[in-house]
Write a structure and sequence with these properties.
heterodimer, A: 477 residues, mainly alpha, Formate dehydrogenase/DMSO reductase fold, 16 helices, disordered N terminus, B: 189 residues, alpha+beta, 2 domains, 4-stranded antiparallel beta sheet, 5 helices, 4 strands, elongated
C-alpha cells in the first residue's frame, strides 16, 4: 500500500476515501434532521416556485373538467396532442430511476448506491405526472375506473384487446411496484432517522414509517432476498412499460406508427431522457447538500456514458424509421417520412431534435466533458428538450397528414396545453423538494456496506496500481 | 428459532430477562462472536447490524429463507389469474367480435398477463418479507438495550436470548466477555 495523498483529485472511485458509517449518517441525515428554522433559503425559493406552478396545475385541471378537452389544441386529425406527448415524456424520465435501482443492482454495479434512492423518488414523481395525463385526456376523467375490470351493474368488461387497457395495467403495476420498491428500500434508512431524531415529531414520523425495524440478521436475510426479487421483477417491468406505451402507437395503422422498432426504440429513448433528468437533479443536489464524496464524479461520468450509449441507439432508431419508410414501398409511409423531415409546417422540430439528441451528446465522448458538471448539466437540459421534441414529432406531426388529403389538418397548442405542462413541473418540484427535506436522498445503509467493502478491499482491483501510476505522473507522492 | 424450548429449565433466571446483549464496534467483531457462539452450542440468538453483513446468517446458524418459493407461487397465480380474467371476460362472459379476431385472441392478452404476474409476485415479496419479520411491530425487547440507537449507525450487537437451552447468566456472560465486546447488557423483556 502506498501513502494516500488526499489532495489529489480522484475520479475513478465510487465514493470518496475514508468514509465511515457515522460520517455517512451525518452527511446524509443532518440536512434532513435540522429544525424547520434551519431549512436553507434555496429550498424555500424552490418550494415557492413549485407551489405556484402547482396552483397553476390545479387551476388548469379545474378549467379542463368544467369546460372540457376543447380548451386544448388537440382535435381531429391530431387527437393526441400535448397530453400524450407530455405523458410519454414524463414516463420516460421515470425509467432511469428503476433502471438504476433494479438493473444495476442485478449487474452488481457498486456505483448504483448513493444515486438510486433519489432516482427512485424521481421515478415515482414522474409517474404521478405521467399517470394523470391519460386520465385527464379521457374527456370524462371521473369515470376513469371504467378501464378496470370490476363487477358492475352494466355487465360489461373493459376491452382487453386494446393497447389502451394494456397501458392501464402497465402503468398501474409500474407505479405501485415502484412505490413498494422505494419504501422497502427506505425502511432501514427510516430506522436510522428514527434513532437520530431530535424532536418528538421526528420520532413519531420516522418511528411509525420505520415499522419497528431493528436490523436483526434474520430480518436482513429476508430483506435482502425480497429486495433482490423486487429488483429482478422491476427490471423486466420497466422494459415492458415503455414497450407497452410504444405499442399504443405500433398496434395502430397510422403511417409512421405501425413499426416494429417502436418498443426497443422507445425504451432506449426513455432511458436516455431519464439519465438526463438524473443528471439535472444530481448535479445541484450534491452541491446543495455537500454530497460530493458520495455522489462522485464517477457517478456523473457513468451516467453520461449511459446517456451517450442510449442516445446513439435513439439516433439509430431515427434512421431505421426513415429507412423502413423507404424500404416498405408504401406511399403513405414514404410521404410521412418526407413530411417529418422536410414538411413545411414542422421540419424545424425534426432538425432540432437531431441537433439536441444526436449532435449535442457527441462531446460526451471526451472525458473532460464528462468530468465537468456544468457541461453535463447543460447537455442534459438540451437532451430533455430534444426528447420532448421527439415525442412531438412522433405524436403530433405524424397525425397532421395521414392517408386522405381531405382529413389533413394542423396542430396548434393552446395556453391551457402549456399551463398544464408547466403545472406538472410544479407537482414534480413540490414532491421532490419535500422528499429531499424529509427523507434521506441517499441510501445510507447501502453506502455503509459499500464503505466497509471499500475500506477493506478498495474501490476496485486496480485501485492501488492506478494510484501509484497517477502519483508518479503527478509527482504528488 | 425453535418454539419448543421450554423456559422452565431456566427457573433460576429473573422472569423478565430477555437475554444478554454484547456490543461491538466492528463488523468483524460481531462476526467472530456469532461464529464462536454457534460453535459453543447457542441456538436462540440474533445479531443486529446497521447494514446487511454477508454470511452473518450462516454464522448464526440460520436456515436460508424460503421467500423465493412463495414469490414464485404468487407469480404463477398472478399469471393464471391475469390470463383467465381476460379469457373469462372476452370468451365466456361477454363474447364480442372485434375485427374478425378469434374470441380467444391470446397474443393480445400477454401484456396484461405479464403485468399481473409482476404485480402479484412483487407485492408478495414485499409484504411477506415484512410479515415474516413481524413488521410493523412497535415494541421489541431488544430496544431496551443501552446504546441500541447506534445499531442503525455504526455499532454491532449480538443477543443470546434467555430462552436458549444453554443460557446461563454467569456462563453466558463470561463467554461473551471472551469475545472482547465494548460492553455487555442484561436486557429485560
Amino acid at each position: 500500500m502506498s501513502v494516500r495523498t488526499p489532495s489529489m483529485q480522484e475520479t475513478h472511485r465510487v465514493i470518496g476515501r475514508g468514509q465511515t458509517s457515522a460520517g455517512i449518517d451525518d452527511t446524509v441525515n443532518t440536512p434532513v434532521l435540522v429544525g424547520p428554522g434551519r431549512t436553507p433559503r434555496w429550498w424555500w425559493i424552490g418550494m415557492g416556485i413549485s407551489l405556484s406552478l402547482l396552483a397553476l396545475y390545479l387551476v388548469s385541471i379545474v378549467v379542463l373538467i368544467t369546460t372540457g378537452t376543447g380548451i386544448w389544441g388537440n382535435n381531429i386529425p391530431v387527437a393526441w396532442g400535448m397530453p400524450i406527448i407530455n405523458f410519454v415524456w414524463w414516463i420516460g424520465i421515470g425509467h432511469a430511476g428503476t433502471l438504476i435501482s433494479a438493473a444495476l443492482l442485478l449487474f452488481r454495479q457498486p456505483w448504483r448506491t448513493s444515486i438510486n434512492r433519489f432516482a427512485e423518488a424521481m421515478t415515482i414523481f414522474a409517474v404521478v405526472n405521467a399517470g394523470l395525463y391519460p386520465i385527464l385526456h379521457l374527456g370524462r376523467p371521473w369515470v376513469f375506473y371504467w378501464l378496470l375490470p370490476y363487477p358492475n351493474t352494466y355487465g360489461l368488461f373493459p376491452q382487453f384487446r386494446s393497447p389502451l387497457d394494456w397501458d392501464l395495467f402497465a402503468i398501474g403495476t409500474y407505479a405501485s411496484v415502484s412505490v413498494l420498491f422505494w419504501f422497502i428500500g427506505l425502511i432501514p434508512d427510516l430506522a436510522t432517522l428514527r434513532d437520530r431524531s431530535t424532536s418528538k415529531f421526528q420520532r413519531l414520523l420516522y418511528g411509525a414509517l420505520a415499522l419497528g425495524w431493528n436490523g436483526s440478521a434474520k430480518a436482513w436475510q429476508r430483506y435482502q432476498r425480497a429486495y433482490l426479487l423486487l429488483a429482478a421483477l422491476s427490471f423486466p417491468l420497466v422494459l415492458s412499460v415503455h414497450s407497452t406505451i410504444a405499442m399504443d402507437f405500433a398496434v395502430s395503422q397510422v403511417p409512421g406508427w405501425n413499426n416494429t422498432i417502436m418498443p426497443p426504440y422507445f425504451v432506449a429513448g426513455a432511458v436516455f431522457a431519464g439519465f438526463a433528468m438524473v443528471l439535472i437533479l444530481a448535479i445541484p443536489l450534491r452541491k446543495a447538500f455537500h454530497l460530493e464524496n458520495l455522489i462522485t464524479m464517477r457517478h456523473l461520468d457513468n451516467s453520461a456514458k449511459l446517456m451517450l450509449a442510449t442516445g446513439m441507439i435513439v439516433v439509430y432508431g431515427y434512421f431505421v424509421e426513415l429507412f423502413d419508410a423507404w424500404y416498405s414501398g408504401v406511399e403513405f409511409e414514404r410521404f410521412m417520412a418526407l413530411n417529418r423531415v422536410f414538411g413545411a409546417d414542422h421540419w424545424w422540430a425534426f432538425w432540432l431534435l437531431i441537433l439536441a439528441n444526436g449532435v449535442a451528446i457527441q462531446p460526451l465522448w471526451f472525458r473532460a466533458v464528462r468530468q465537468s458538471p456544468l457541461a453535463l448539466f447543460i447537455i442534459s437540459i438540451i437532451v430533455s428538450i430534444g426528447m420532448w421534441l421527439e415525442r412531438f414529432v412522433i405524436v403530433a406531426v405524424t397525425l397532421t397528414k395521414d392517408f386522405l388529403l381531405s382529413s389533413w389538418g394542423d396542430y396548434v397548442s393552446t395556453f391551457w396545453d402549456w399551463s398544464l405542462f408547466a403545472g406538472t413541473f410544479g407537482m414534480f418540484g413540490t414532491l421532490f423538494l419535500l422528499f429531499i427535506r424529509l427523507l434521506p436522498s441517499i441510501a445510507t445503509t447501502e453506502v455503509k456496506e459499500l464503505a466497509h467493502h471499500d475500506a477493506h478491499h478498495g474501490s476496485d482491483p486496480f485501485e492501488d496500481v492506478r494510484h501509484d501510476v497517477m502519483t508518479q505522473k503527478g509527482g504528488a507522492a | 428459532m425453535s418454539e419448543t424450548i421450554s423456559p422452565a429449565v431456566h427457573a433460576d433466571l429473573p422472569a423478565d430477562l430477555y437475554g444478554l446483549v454484547a456490543e461491538f464496534d466492528t463488523q468483524e467483531g460481531v462476526e467472530a462472536a456469532a461464529d464462536a457462539a454457534r460453535k459453543a452450542g447457542y441456538q436462540v440468538m440474533d445479531a443486529y447490524t446497521p447494514y446487511p453483513v454477508e454470511g452473518l446468517d450462516e454464522k448464526l446458524g440460520f436456515t436460508p429463507t424460503r421467500l423465493g418459493w412463495i414469490v414464485l407461487a404468487a407469480g404463477i397465480a398472478g399469471a393464471l389469474g391475469g390470463f383467465f380474467m381476460q379469457y373469462y371476460a372476452n370468451v365466456v362472459f361477454y363474447p364480442l367480435n372485434i375485427g374478425g379476431k378469434p374470441l380467444n385472441s391470446w397474443p393480445n392478452w400477454i401484456v396484461i398477463t405479464f403485468e399481473m404476474t409482476v404485480l402479484f409476485s412483487a407485492f408478495t415479496a414485499g409484504l411477506f418479507m415484512l410479515g415474516r419479520n413481524g413488521l410493523p411491530r412497535p415494541y421489541h425487547p431488544i430496544f431496551n438495550t443501552p446504546g441500541f440507537e447506534n445499531a442503525t449507525r455504526d455499532r454491532f450487537f449480538l443477543c443470546i436470548e434467555a430462552r436458549d437451552e444453554r443460557f446461563d447468566l454467569q456462563g453466558t456472560r463470561s463467554f461473551l466477555e471472551e469475545q472482547s465486546p465494548l460492553r455487555i447488557s442484561e436486557v429485560e423483556q
